[in-house]
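Reposting from the mailing list since nobody answered there.

I have sequence plus structure tokens for a pair of proteins and want to know whether others read the tokens the same way I do. The first protein:
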Amino acid sequence: MAANRSEKIRPPAVIILILLHVLLGIGALGGGGVLVADPTGATMGMPLSMLDGLPFRTFLAPALALALLLGVCPLLVAIGLWNPRALAFFELLNPSKSRRWPFAASISIGVYLMGWTLGEMMIWGWVWPSAIYCAWGGVVVAITFVTSVKRYLQVAASASAR
């Protein structure tokens, strides 16, 4: 009985990681949604000239990528962190046999966020929001590797043997 109870206790690092993913997801859905609604970028004060030299004529494609990859995906990871057995079909994509899918997915989101923001800074120069989001991605990766998070997402020995 005590083992079942301890499995349900989320370490503080997991709670922080969930909050980071939820806030990222909500923000990216908001920003992506505004750009989908107005792909010219005018609503957000972003001129189309920002896309000069890029393979886009409007902000629609980047907005859809933002909404899906940094909006929907982090929210799915947050669900998986809240309940590691939720959305079990993602285990099919999981490269780790020793940890549940949110472990690899959380690392992927953090790395992708750092890459996205570093790409922005390479194209448009250093701006503090991009720097903050880049650091956010690094924090997500670092917290995912905290021992209590790894232990929380560890697959039981009998389940990993299957």
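The second protein, same order (residues first, tokens after):
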Amino acid sequence: MPIYTRQGDKGKTSLPGIKHRVEKHHPLIEIYGIFDELVTTLNIINTHKTVPKSIKQLLTSAQKDIFSAGTQLFSRRTHINVQTIQKLEQQMDYLEAGMPKLNQFIISSKTASSAYCHLARCICRRLERRLIAFHRKKPIHRSILAYMNRLSDWLFILARKLDNG
């Protein structure tokens, strides 16, 4: 069966849980697209040979969580919860231990993997902004909003870790 269906040729598409087709510029299509960008960017980081195995495992776990968050925007129960957020916080504390304190803004990265972490952080912030705007119109799980906020911090710490070893 081919991947193309020609169903979207007129600018409309379907969404899980929505019975009617929506315009491709619908805010949810934008949000799902940003989820996809974020997961893909983490995958790019994960393919770098210089990234330690322990960090690759963290990245893979984050990719799964992000994917879950995207698929569970409107369900009553979500995989993203207080424990998921605390897991990120614990990982940040662990990754940041022993790193020099920041006294100024960081402008550049020493490695491609670190630079991609900063790109992923920017994508995550954009996703968070779009989710908050959508949440104002149609409420979504607050834990997903909190997770995205924490994830951008996690990506910042991860970029520093990849630069500082």
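Reply #1 (J.P.):
I read it the same way you do. The chain has one domain: 25-164.
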